[in-house]
Amino acid sequence: xxxxxxxxxxxxxxxxxxxxxxxxxxxxxxxxxxxxxxxxxxxxxxxxxxxxxxxxxxxxxxxxxxxxxxxxxxxxxxxxxxxxxxxxxxxxxxxxxxxxxxxxxxxxxxxxxxxxxxxxxxxxxxxxxxxxxxxxxxxxxxxxxxxxxxxxxxxxxxxxxxxxxxxxxxxxxxxxxxxxxxxxxxxxxxxxxxxxxxxxxxxxxxxxxxxxxxxxxxxxxxxxxxxxxxxxxxxxxxxxxxxxxxxxxxxxxxxxxxxxxxxxxxxxxxxxxxxxxx
Length: 278
Fold this sequence. Notes:
Elements: H1 3-16, H2 22-34, H3 38-43, H4 51-65, H5 70-74, E1 76-79, E2 82-85, H6 95-107, E3 114-118, H7 124-132, E4 137-142, H8 145-157, E5 164-168, E6 179-184, E7 189-190, H9 206-209, E8 210-212, H10 217-225, E9 230-239, H11 245-254, E10 258-264, E11 270-277
Parallel strand pairs: 3-4, 3-6, 4-5, 6-9, 7-8
Antiparallel strand pairs: 1-2, 9-11, 10-11
């Protein structure tokens, strides 16, 4: 089979198995197996592939059709212009979280800010902010040791191990200093909504997805805990689930935060909350 025929065949197979963006998935996997860029594929479409090239590709295509996330198969994901290791130890980063980082970057006035990423997962928020602000002091916490191991591997890969410290904490339980910015993309899916999730999302760790019976419990608790760890005028920046913002904005007001407001994601849903304390 030619390379083009392989791409077309894989795309058709993915479409049959209800994989979103089947052609894009096919091109990514073929490029990965052949150690080419996607653009390189277009220059080699007429080339016949050998059995040694086809065998590993067949396995990859089967696994993707069964719902294994593309990012797990590739082993990496691009986030805010950086390449991160990605596997089953932590949630696959979502485009909405890139939006959160972009907004947060625009709000950091002091380039030597002390920043805490709560529920850091693979470390994408903490490490993206550290790369953007070389003088900042950045910490990341998570309850999962597996996720923290992955975050440390990403820090080493990006040359940021000396600047970003990751440690285990259930929210702010083990945090003993104050910060100019606390940012968090915590689990916010309700346990009862498991049946609505795609096969790919369900490959993420449960601890990274489900926030409790209603979904917003962990975010609520962080709002309660954060004032003790925010410097005067410090910012709390949150990514939340669709439909959760109204209740959480009320909690922020009850807890005496100020300059409280929300922002929509690119899809138009209210996804991000911001507030200052003190």
